[in-house]
Specification:
Layout lengths: L6 H9 L5 H14 L9 H8 L3 H13 L3 E7 L2 E6 L1 H4 L14
Antiparallel strand pairs: 1-2
Helix pairs in contact: 2-4, 3-4
Amino acid sequence: MTNSVYPELEALQGRISGLSHLKQNVIMTYAICGGLEGSVERTAAALASLMGVPAPHLSRARRELEADGWLEHTHSQGQVKFFRLGEVATGREVVVPLRSRPTA
């Protein structure tokens, strides 16, 4: 029996196995950059550059993942939206959902 150093990431990997490779990449990038609970405060362009994909592809995949509960919108700064892993990705029910911060 092997003891995993990152059991949460291995469980996440199992949950996302049915998604497209791009969507798996997006989810794992959010898991690495923000952990299972933290918001990732990077723009879509920065994340796309990190992943080596065009920003429009990442944005489209992210919208679809948000609609399916894999990602959760945490807040916005101007036109830029920030996300964290959603309930489907973490396998945890959110007891107190985040409220978006009002923008000025």
